[in-house]
Amino acid sequence: MFTNFFKTALRNFAKHRLTSFINLFGLTLGLTGCLMITVYVLHEVSYEQWNGNADRIYRVARIFNTSDGEKSLELSTVSPPFGYYFPSEFPEIEKMTRLLGMGTVPLKYEEKLFNEKKAFFADENLFELFPVKVVKGNPVTALKDPYTIMLTEEAAKKYFGDEDPINKMIRVNSQAEGKVTGVFEAFPANSHIHPEVLISFNTLRDSLIYGEQQLRTNWGNNSFFTYLLLSDGYDPRSMEQKFPDFLDKHMAREYGGAKPSALTSLYLRKLSDIHLYSHTDVEAEPNGDIKRVYIFSAIALFILFIACINYMNLSTARALLRAKEIGIRKVVGAGKWELRAQLLSEAMLLCLLAAALALLLTWLTIPWLNKVSGESLSFQVLLQPNVWLWLLATTALVGLLSGLYPALYLSSFQPAKTLKGLFKVGRANISLRKTLVVSQFAIGICLIVLTITVMQQLRYIHTKSLGYNKDQVLTLAYANEVDQHYESFREAILKSPHFKNLTRSSRIPTGRLLDNMGASVLSGDSLRPVTADIKYVSCDYDFADTYDLELAAGRFYSKAFGMDTANFVINQAAVRAAGWKADSEAIGKDFRYGGIKGQVIGVIKDFHFESMHQSIAPMVFLPVRSYGNLSVKIDGSNTRAAMEWLEQVWKQYFPETPFDYTFLDERFDRLYEAEKKQAGVFTSFSLMAICIACLGLFGLSTFAVSQRIKEIGVRKVLGASVKGLVLLLAKDFLKLVVIAALIAFPLAWYAMHQWLAGFEYRISVQWWVFVLSGLLAVSVAFVTIGLLAIKAALANPVKALRTE
Question: Is 116 helix (H, G, I), strand (E, B) or coil?
Answer without folding.
Answer: strand
